[in-house]
Specification:
single chain; Rossmann fold; 4 domains; 50% helix; flat
């Protein structure tokens, strides 16, 4: 537990002990003590509403309860400098913040591991994200989902979870058949043969490119094959090429997966049939109109869902249920990152898991909303290169991986995002990723200046106690909040909290830097301030690493 959390827990215990000592309520009736950081700084470092929570049991006015608590609290043991009762009964605590120098000692000791927690040690979680069909390039929705999923996986890992990052390859079903038909049409077209392009075919440039490569390597050999054999071959080649491109693009985007799970394997292993049998044994399927249905309304879905259609083929839902069953057999908790068009899919999947006997709350779904690109104040709908939708590859080429990932993670995933490409590449304080990265680069510049003067940070207590200004103490407190932010972001599945934290930290650092000289004639103070800056730089590095963004030394 980091020093700030230790201080917080000590204060909570002292508040509870004060309530017990007051004799107002039985110990068993005391609720959990909640401490929050007040919005206004003049209201203290922490505040609690425990007095208002006790009103019903104590049968007293909350301000009277608050006064009794304050009278009994051991302020010295809790490192309290001042206590105030405010409003209807809030208790505001102003802490002796000299303990904050221990935060710098911990950062210096932990280095790149500072912020990591054992809070969820041993808990397994499977995070599935991106999972684009291998039928074309990755686009904006995949780009946002990949950035969010990867950042969330990093944060869960830092909070102590054993994380499996998984990509579900949709390599069975109609979309793959349509991909093969589209590739066949481009192949025939490239050979000068008349052909009708499939009405719902994939018209991306990638199909033309693969077809041209096939003509170069195979010539017209595929024409001699039976059509069924030709389509099977094209499906195999198309999947290999397109999935290979997806993997390559994601690697450049700094996204790696532990598991690439094939939908086709569910058919080959018999997992789908086993899952259907399990649902039947549980009594949650029935036949009607020649189809097999799931009684999903028994678990809160708005209507029952078809599992096997009249023609004997599976619906999209059926292999998906088998897949989620497989994941739950491998991991105790599932997190899916889905696009906005999957919002209605959540209740039916949870219903299916409940029908199989699983706790549906073991599945969490993070929805990523739509992205709109803007350039020069105008909405960008098409790629300048292809005239089609803008791809992940093109976006990162134009604005860079750092800016792309930062912008996609900085907002709550379930909110629409307007991505300003001009802002993303600008070198100004209005660009949030530049603003945070510049804080790190600025600190590195200070260290280069210090090195020229033969000066280095001091972690000695005698030096660090010189850090007494309000801005210095605020910075140390902010640094101390980082481990707690990681745990909260993990529990709330909210990677944007880390980005917001980093922006706030950068703001406090820039404010301090503009108000205080770091390298002064007072060597001891200068070395203490260098230690403070090293702490800021380390936390910026650690935080940016969680969201997949570099911390440059020069800008």
């Amino acid at each position: 537990m980091n020093p700030l959390e230790q201080m917080k827990e000590t204060l909570k215990k002292q508040i509870k002990q004060a309530v017990i000592a007051s004799g107002m309520v039985p110990e068993t009736e005391i609720p959990e003590v909640i401490l929050e950081v007040p919005r206004e700084k003049e209201h203290g470092d922490w505040a609690t509403n425990i007095a208002m929570q006790l009103t019903r049991v104590a049968r007293k006015n909350p301000r009277e309860i608050a006064a009794a608590i304050v009278e009994k609290i051991d302020q010295q043991s809790a490192h309290i400098r001042e206590v105030q009762i405010a409003g209807p009964g809030f208790i505001n605590f102003f802490m002796d913040r000299s303990f904050l120098i221990r935060v710098l000692n911990e950062i210096q000791s932990a280095g790149g591991k500072y912020g990591r927690s054992e809070a969820r040690r041993g808990a397994k979680v499977n995070v599935e994200f991106c999972s684009a069909n291998p039928t074309g390039n990755l686009h904006l929705g995949h780009a946002r989902g990949s950035a969010v999923g990867d950042a969330l996986s990093n944060i869960l890992d830092a909070a102590g979870y054993e994380v499996t990052r998984e990509y579900y390859i949709n390599d069975a079903g109609n979309q793959m058949n349509m991909m093969a038909l589209s590739l066949e049409a481009r192949y025939l077209e490239g050979l000068g043969r008349d052909c009708a392009f499939p009405e719902d075919g994939y018209r991306g440039q990638e199909m033309i490119d693969i077809a041209q490569d096939l003509i170069q390597s195979e010539g017209d050999r595929l024409l001699s094959l039976e059509r069924e054999e030709r389509l099977a071959y094209l499906k195999k080649i198309g999947k290999e090429r397109l999935l290979g491109k997806i993997k390559s693009d994601l690697k450049k985007y700094r996204v790696e997966f532990d598991v690439w799970f094939s939908e086709l394997s569910l058919y080959e292993s018999g997992a789908i049939k086993d899952t259907l049998n399990a649902l039947k044994e549980q009594g949650y399927t029935y036949e009607e109109d020649g189809a097999l249905w799931l009684k999903s309304t028994a678990f809160g879905d708005d209507k029952d869902r078809v599992l096997i259609k009249q023609d004997g083929s599976y619906t999209y839902l059926t292999p998906d249920i088998a897949y989620h069953r497989d994941k739950l057999q491998r991991s105790g908790r599932l997190i899916n990152i889905w696009g906005a068009d999957h919002h209605g899919y959540i209740p039916r999947m949870k219903a299916a898991l409940a029908a199989l006997g699983y706790d549906p709350d073991k599945l969490d779904v993070v929805i990523t909303q739509m992205v709109k690109l803007y350039r020069g104040g105008e909405l960008v709908k098409m790629s300048k290169r292809t005239g089609k939708a803008v791809t992940l590859e093109e976006l990162t080429e134009e604005v860079g991986v750092d800016a792309t990932r930062y912008f996609f993670v900085m907002r709550n995933p379930d909110t629409h995002l307007d991505f300003d490409m001009d802002l993303a590449v600008s070198q100004s304080n209005e660009n949030p990723v530049y603003y945070v990265q510049y804080a790190h680069a600025r600190i590195c510049s200070v260290f280069r200046q210090a090195a020229e003067k033969g000066m280095s940070p001091s972690w000695e207590e005698s030096a660090l106690t010189r850090l007494q200004s309000e801005q210095e103490l605020d910075l140390m407190q902010k640094l101390g909040e980082f481990p707690g932010e990681i745990v909260t972001a993990a529990e709330q599945l909210a990677p944007h909290r880390i980005v917001r934290y980093l922006y706030d930290l950068a703001t406090q650092f820039h404010s301090f830097y503009n108000a205080q000289r770091v390298i002064t004639d007072d060597e001891e103070l200068s070395r203490a301030r260098l230690a403070l800056l090293e702490g800021v730089a380390q936390v910026v590095r650690n935080g940016l690493k969680l969201v997949g963004v570099h911390a440059p030394e020069r800008m």
